[in-house]
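Structure tokens
________________
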Amino acid sequence: MKRYEYKTISIYWRAERKLNQLGYEGWELVSVCNGAMYLKREYED
């Protein structure tokens, strides 16, 4: 069974660099709502 961990970060101007770094670390953007970006990645034991 897959397990996930989640991260929430604020939306701010010029977030591209931060999102690229998080993508490199395995985070996937799954939703944007009310000024926040929600990300997930598979949990590794």
Notes: The radius of gyration is 11 Å. Residues 4-42 form one domain. The chain has one domain: 4-42. The chain has a mean pLDDT of 90.
